[in-house]
Structure formats: structure tokens, C-alpha cells
Amino acid sequence: MPMIVNLDVMLAKRKVRSKELAEAIGITESNLSLFKSGKVKGVRFSTLAAICRYLECQPGEILAYELSDDDLRPESGE
């Protein structure tokens, strides 16, 4: 399930540095970096809401879904 994280794009549009965002929403820069790179398995809605509130954007401006062939295969155990 390839989720695309476009947080870098939104940060650039708003002229906000990652460090500034991390401090403003109360997470570490390393956790924000992991999120930006898509290397996390999940994100709390409260964190996503804080990001959107600070950047004045919608979740769909940060996250996107790209269909892949793997998504068409049933999960094991189904």
C-alpha cells in the first residue's frame, strides 16, 4: 500500500523548516523526518491534525495514495 508523503512540498509552499514544524507541534525532528520519508507504519490523527493546523492545509495535501499491483492481491489469510 504505497502512501506518498508530500510534507516536503507543503513545507516549501509555506516556507516552514522541519525544525520549526517539529517544535511547534511537539514531536522530535527525527520522528518528523521519518514521517516525511514515509518510513513510518502509521501516524496519529492528533499529529496529522497538528501538522495541518500549523501549515493551514488539509490531510490530502500531505498524503496521497498510489495504487500498485500488490494492492490488487488478497491479504494472506483471507
TrEMBL record:
Alphabetized SMART domains for the sequence: HTH_XRE
InterPro entries tied to this protein: Cro/C1-type_HTH, Lambda_DNA-bd_dom_sf
Domain HTH cro/C1-type: start-end pairs: 19-62
The organism's place on the tree of life at top rank: Bacteria
Gene3D superfamilies from the UniProt entry: lambda repressor-like DNA-binding domains
Alphabetized PROSITE patterns for the sequence: HTH_CROC1
Coiled-coil annotated residue ranges, if any: none
GO MF term set: DNA binding
Protein name as catalogued: Transcriptional regulator
Source organism of the structure: Sphingomonas ginsenosidimutans
